[in-house]
Amino acid sequence: MTTAPVAGDASAEIPQFPHPRAAACPFDPSPELRGLARWGPLTRVRSWGDTTPWVVTSHAEQKALLSDPRLSADFSHPGFPSPVDHSGGEHGATDLSFVGMDDPEHARLRRMVSGAFTIKRIEAMRPVVQQMVDDFITRMLAGPKPADLVQALALPVPSLVISELLGVPYDDHAFFQTNSKVLVSAVATPQERQAAHGNLNGYLDQLLDAKLTEPGDDLLSSLGKQIHAGELTRRQAVAMGVLLLLGGHETTANMITLGTLLLLEHPDQLARVRDTDDPKVIASAVEELLRYLSVVHLGRRRTALEDIEIAGRTIRAGEGVILLGELANRDPSVFPNPDRLDIARDARSHQAFGSGTHHCLGQPLARMELQVVYPTLLRRIPTLRLATDLDQVPFKYDAVIYGVHELPVTWYPFSLRACAAAARPGPPARRRCPRASS
User: Is pLDDT above 90 for 206?
Assistant: First the structure.
């Protein structure tokens, strides 16, 4: 193992971060990113503003640090790292929400909305989500070919679900999707992000007015009650609403399209998802897709509140830390042959949703939506295929959340011959992707 570069050492070659995925291998971490692991579980990188935060590459160290109260999620710390340019002074839609706070305030605010995302409540929604998915697929089948899976299915499903949970009119989906896209862009200017942030804040603030006057059975109304009770400020309620609206559709939409595309590239795995009636097989497939794709590919960010000794390194108080789930999910000590897609693998220990006190609140909802969408889409359109070459698909190299900007798909006419052809899985896709040298 090579000694990690040290900040402040002029002779040290500190690698840049982040790195876009290689165009030839869009489902894999870039060779440069993989190369960070050669320095060991932790290494320095050079990021925005010439900062040199630590990057954590291994599964064990990431899991330990995400549960360590000596790491802070508070954006206001001077050493808090960012993979995008925040020189305009704002970190985005989550400044006043619990995601950017530490316990006990984080836990207090999180409890106000966590009841809506329990496994029991989410499972009760499954029939409703199933009907939504079927309806959107029916519309897609009735429309022209090729169809853009992003606009026809991947964005509408989670957008409609989170709209109903929050009490947001789905008719406004184009507005909040457009502004959300700016907030998760890695290339938008600080001014563009601030404008999008302001647009969503103003929108949610107006909706909150209505909920305070005429509450309904939704999350915004619940937050309004917390305002009346003096447990929540209006600004906090708006920020939490923006966070839930943004997080409730962006990540899942990208997983739907990227996961479908990955399965189309692995017809043997696709056939197993399409042809099974065992919900455990579907659940296992979803976990493996979450592991393999790791759409939150720029990592989770923290600042050390005090010195932390880990893996032979010392993270000093005030230093930034970026925890790369994309690399943790390819850690061969946890996932043997990690670059192989295997939906039969037990991938439940992946870090796609993070871990510790800040683990993703909406993960039960995301899992359920994916468990419904993948098999339903593949069964109802058994001849589904990509309508262009893979190298023509516009991947989101320019976004904080990885995915595709559009996914043109088509299908053969429904016939016994077409179904028989679709039922014969071809060999698994084999791509020679560049690997980092050891």
Answer: yes
CA 20 to CA 23: how far, in whole Å?
8
- Residue written as token pair 């020189």: 87
Q: Which residues pair with 185 in a beta bridge?
A: 399
How many domains in the chain?
Answer: 1
User: What angle, 0 to 180 degrees and rounded to 10, lies between the N-to-C axes of helices 156-166 and 234-265?
Assistant: 160
Decide if 428 is inside a domain. Answer: no
Q: Are strands 308-310 and 300-304 parallel, antiparallel or unpaired?
A: unpaired
Pairwise CA distance, residues 270 & 6, whole Å:
45
Which one-letter amino acid corresponds to residue 215? P
Tokens 């798909």 correspond to: 409
The rounded Cα 14 to chain-centroid distance in angstroms is 27
Q: At CA 306, angle to CA 305 and CA 309, rounded to 5?
A: 125
Nearest Cα to Cα of residue 392 among 152, 183, 146: 146
Q: How far apart are CA 226 and CA 233, in angstroms?
A: 8
Say yes or no to pLDDT of 7 above 90: no
User: Does residue 115 sit within a domain?
Assistant: yes
- Residue with structure tokens 């309904």? 216
Looking at the domain assignment, is residue 48 inside a domain? yes
Place of tokens 């109260």: 69
CATH number, residue 38:
1.10.630.10
Q: Which pLDDT tens digit goes with each residue over 398-416?
A: 888 999 999 999 999 865 4
Distance of CA 271 to the CA centre of its chain: 25
State what percent of residues in the chain have pLDDT above 90. 75
Domain coverage including residue 343: 31-423
What is the reported pLDDT for 186? 85
Residue 222: both structure tokens together: 């619940």
Domain-located, residue 11: no
Give every CB contact of residue 325 below 8 A, 6+ residues apart in sequence.
62, 294, 296, 297, 299, 300, 350, 351, 352, 354
For residues 138-153, average pLDDT: 98
Tokens of 121: 């409540």
Closest CA to 156 of 179, 133, 175: 133
By three-state DSSP, how is residue 386 classified? strand
